[in-house]
Amino acid sequence: MNPVIQQLQNHYSIRDFQEKPLSTEQIQELVKSAQAASTSSFIQAYSIIGINDIEKRKKLSAIAGNQPYVVKTGQFFVFVADLARHERIAQKLGSSSEALSSTEKMLVAIVDASLAAQNMAVAAESMGLGVCFIGGIRNAIEETADILELPPYTIPLFGLTVGYPVQSSKPKPRLPEAAIYHEDSYQFKDDSIAAYDEAIQNYYQKRTNGDRVEAWSEQISRFLERPSRLDLKQFIEKQQFMKK
Locate the Nitroreductase domain: which residues (predicted)? Predict the structure, then answer.
């Protein structure tokens, strides 16, 4: 197994960081690595906002469920689906920006930002740093957008906290390949889920010394019973997306 594959397969989220900021050079390398990701039709429809202001970090942490590792970390980045610069280009050149309001262009921006973020995460781990994605900034997306001073044609998607881990851990078992990988057509494979439920139960039991014993299917069932972030559609439309 080559080092890149080994690093990818050993990934796990870090939720306890040293109070040691990343250097300017490290941040530049991480952003440059993010920018090297593939981008649809070369439109590069995303922005990355580094949050240095501790008060802003505290506000974003509160939105995300009071996650302390948003504040105590090397750097906190927010990835934004961004077509605002494209709208400005259209204005300057006197061309129509109508296409920017389509659902397709929104998806393009979301995919572009996600690919860039994954590149940054891989780069960070190759530097001996740890990462954790923070989707909780969407818990109050309007407030998040206000904190970041976002214009129309932008959506704050998620945060990425990057820093020096306090301690190491082990990857959480993923779904078996049989459940994820399909050939030629989609196929339900319930037997692979049953085996995975048992593996996750064993994982939690060992990790928590028996305090938590829960199958993956039980997690998913509980997750689906709690509708969340129901203000997203209204916010997205306010930002001029999904009009067609």
Answer: 10-164
